[in-house]
Protein 1
Amino acid sequence: MEEYFLPEEKLAEQFPKLSNFELIGRGGQKQVYKCDYGKKKLALKFIQVENEVMFDDTALDRVHREIKLINNLKSPYLVKVGLVAPGYFKKDNSLFYYYSEEYLDGPTVREMICTQVFDNNLCLKMLINITSAIEALWTGGRESVHRDIKPENIIYKKSDDIFVLIDAGMVLIKQETSLTPTGYVVGTLPYMSPEQISGRRNLLDYRSDLYALGLVAYECITGKHAYITAGMKKSEIINNIINFVPPILKGKVEHYSEELLDVVDILVKKRPHMRFNSCKKLLEKLAIISYN
C-alpha cells in the first residue's frame, strides 16, 4: 500500500472545529498531528487502511465503547482519548481511520534515551508508572491489552512528574469478540512478545505488555535494544523475537540497583509464565526497590 501524506490545509477542511495543525509524528501507515480544539490541545492520529470494508458502523461503535472504557479507568498513567470522535474518511484514493488523544507536552522515552538522561531513579519510576497503567487496563478494563508499548508511546509528563502511556485508543479487550476493525495491525515489531508475533490473540494477556515494558526498560538502561540492531531484515527480527535470549543485566551494569536489573531480566523472559504472574506482584517488587 502506497503511503499518502495528509496536507495540513486539507485537514483544516476536513475538521473545521480544529486549528493549527502541526505534524509531530509519522511512520508506517500512521501520521500524528498536534492541533487546537478550542483551548485544548489534541494529538489527532490517522491510520491509513486498505479498504472501507474494515470500517463499518459496527466497528466504530465498538471503538467508541472501547474509548469510553479507557477513559473511565481514570488512571493518571493512561492518556485520555476520544475528545474528537473516531471515524474514517477518504482522500483521493486513500482511506484513513482517525481518533484523538490529549496532547502531552513532554519528551518521549525515546527522546530521553537518545539524550542519555535515564538513571536508576527514572527507570524505576517509569516501570512503576507504566506497570500501573498495564494493571489498570487488565484489571479495570475487562482484560485489556495495549499491544504497542514502546519508547515512542511513553511520555514523561513534567508537570506531574509521571510517565504516561499513550496510543491507548485501540487496545485489545479480550472479553469482546472484535474491538478493532478487521485487518487492522496493532503493534511495533521490535517490541512484540513471542506470543504476540504468533498472531494468536488468545495467547495475549497483560504479560505481553509487561514483556514490551521490559524491553523498553532494557533499552533505557543500556541505550540499545536487547536484541535488535539497525539494518536487520524483518525475518531476522522475527527470529530474534522467538529465539534470542537477551544478555542478563544483573551483575553486569553499574549505577543501577541489582534488584531493578533483576526485574528487567525477568520481564524479558521468552515464556509468559516465567515473567511476573500479576502486575500486583511486580508492583510489590518494585515498591521495595529504593531510589538512589
Protein 2
Amino acid sequence: MASTDLRDRRPLSPHLQVYRPNLTMMMSILHRITGAALYFALLLGIWWLVALASGPEYFTFVNGIFGSWFGLLILFGATYALFHHMMGGIRHLIWDTGRAFAIPAAEHMAWMSLALAAGLTVLVFVAGWLAA
C-alpha cells in the first residue's frame, strides 16, 4: 500500500500547456506532422503509378484529379511537406555534428529551414508550370 501512496504524491510530468511555444518547438512538431503527411503522399504516388499501369482510361481519370485545383493543392502541400521534412533532417544532421545548439543558431536554422522549404516548393511548381 505504501507504493501506491508514493505514486499518488509524485508530480505530473509537464506537458505542452506548461511551456510557452517557441520556434524550435513548433519546428519539431511540424517535422513530425510533415513526416506523417509524407505517408499519405506516398499513397497518392502509388495510386498514380497503379493508374499508369492500369491503362489509359484510368490513368486519364487519376491524372485529371491530380491536375484539378484541389489535386494541385494537395500536391503543393505534399511537396512542401517533403522539403520541410528534408530541411528538418538536415538540421538534425548538423546538430549530430555538435554544432548550432545555441538558441540564436538553432532559431536561425529554423527560419532558414522554413524559407528554403517554401522557396524550393515554389521553385518546383514554377519549373513544372514552365515545362508544361
Protein 3
Amino acid sequence: MTELELKYGCNPNQKPARIFMERGELPLEVLNGKPGYINFMDALNSWQLVKALKKSTGLPAAASFKHVSPAGAALGLPLTDVERKIYFAPEGELSPIACAYIRARGADRLCSFGDWAALSDVCDADTARFLALEVSDGVIAPGYTDEALEILKTKRKGGYNVVKINPDYQPAPIERRSIYGIVFEQGYNDLAIDGAMLENIVTANKNLPEDAKHDMLLSLITLKYTQSNSVCYVKNGMTIGVGAGQQSRIHCTRLAGNKADIWWLRQHPKVLGLQFVDGIRRPDRDNAIDLYISEEHDDVLAEGVWQNTFQVRPEVLTEQEKKDWIAQMSGVTVGSDAFFPFGDNVERAFKSGAKYIAQPGGSIRDDQVIATADKHDMVMAFTGMRLFHH
C-alpha cells in the first residue's frame, strides 16, 4: 500500500487527508480500527522513541503518547509492590513488555488518558489485557500474538486502533514538510544516543553508576521525540515527569518537576490507603487521586463529592506532609533538550530529588550552572548535542 486515506487532518475541517509514500510501500499495516491524522503522528513519533530505547539499552521499552509528545516512557523492568498498586497493575507475573507499558502509562496517568501506546517488542496477551482496561486510542508494535490481537479487537466496541510497523524500515535520509505552502527540508535526525554522550562529566562529583547512565539515556531519547523546549525527570528506568513545549527552560523544569512530585506523592501512605467505592472507573480514580494530592484536594473532600468516590472520608494530606514526603525523593535523573541558561533550573531539579543531570552545555553561564550542581553534589554530563524536536 502506497497511501492510506484518512477521515480528516488535525481538525474535522481539514480535508482531504492521507498518509503516503512518494516511493515504495508504507512500512505499516492497520490491523484494526481507523487511525486518524494525529493518531499516526503519535504512532510514528512514539515508535521511533521505543525503537531507539531498545537499541540503546537492550531492554524492552514502551511509551504513552499524547499530542505528539510522551506522557511517559519506560523500560521493561519488574514492577514493585507499590508500583503495582499505584499503576493498577494486575497480580501475578507479567512479561517485560507489559511491565514497560504499565510503567510508561503510570508515569503520568492523568495525561495518558486517551493515549497512543508504543511497544518496542511484540504485543503479548499480558500487555493487551492491561490496554483493554485503559482509555486509549491505539497501539503500534512490530507484531501481535494471536491472543493479544483478539483481545485488542474487542476494545472500543471493536474499533480500537491497532497498527503493525515493519521494525526493519529505515526512513529516507532527507525529510520534508510543508508549512503555509512552503516546503522545508532537512536531514533526518539519525543521531545515535549512547553511553559515549555521557563521558564529559563537568562536575566535581564524577560518580555515575550504571543505572543512572540508563536513566540518562532514557531521558535524552525521550527528549529527542518530545516537542521542544523540554525537560525530563527519570527514576529507575521510567520517566516520572515530562515538561514539553514550553517557551522558557525554567518553565519546562518546573512543569516536569511538579509532575515528578505528583508521581512521588502517589506513593505516600495516605494515598496508598485511600479506600474507593466498589466499581469506580479507572479515570475517576485517577482524577480523585490527583485532586487529593494537589492544591485543590479539598474539592474532592467537599460534602457531596467524596461520598461518590471513597468508602470513607479520607484524612487530609497537609501541605507540610507533602513537603516532608517530597524531601525524601532522591536519585532522580534530569535531562534537558538544550542547555540550562541559569542555575535556577538546577535548583528546581534539586527540589525534586535530582542527583544526575544530562544536558548539552554551551551556555555563557555554564560556570554558574556547574557551580550550582557542585553545591548540591550532583553529577552533570555535558552531551554537546541539542535535541530540539518540532
